[in-house]
């Protein structure tokens, strides 16, 4: 009979978790600055680890790209709770939409590689929309309930406005203009 310790899954070591986070942060920066084809050796060097450590965590480039994207989605969804705890619902919605612009800037770089990945990447890319939409719906509902945004503006309206802001997201410098338009949008959404 196996011992109890053998049947339980071993938790990752703290240094392993730290190295994984360092690699994901370095990969996001490298992908954003260059492309999803950034040299893996450069990513490992930025993270302060060896290339072997990178490959232990992410055996392929596709696995690294998918992990960067999954972390972006996870952080974006989780940020809604902390924003709602720290700010009014209307301010939380605006701050989250600003984070959505950051996410879209990352997505611009990694989306082609994710869509080309016949495995985990393409499924992750396809499934991410549901997470984003449900988070946006929750923030919009909270802003309505608090009276922070106009009653006649619904979730679909905000979604249409954000779709308009996303036009050209694959162009350099898009995020600056999108943030400028987001501030106009949020001013217009204010409760009367």
From TrEMBL:
Spell out the InterPro entries in the cross-references: Homeodomain-like_sf, HTH-type_TetR-like_transc_reg, HTH_TetR, Tet_transcr_reg_TetR-rel_C_sf, TetR_SbtR-like_C
Q: Which residues cross the membrane?
A: none
Keyword ATP-binding carried by entry: no
**Family annotation (Pfam families):** TetR_C_43, TetR_N
Q: Which residues bind DNA?
A: 39-58
Q: Which residues form the HTH tetR-type domain?
A: 17-76
Keyword list (alphabetical) reads: DNA-binding, Transcription, Transcription regulation
What is an example of a GO molecular function annotated in this UniProt entry? DNA-binding transcription factor activity
Name under which the protein is recorded: Transcriptional regulator, TetR family
Please report the organism this UniProt entry assigns to the protein.
Answer: Caulobacter segnis (strain ATCC 21756 / DSM 7131 / JCM 7823 / NBRC 15250 / LMG 17158 / TK0059)
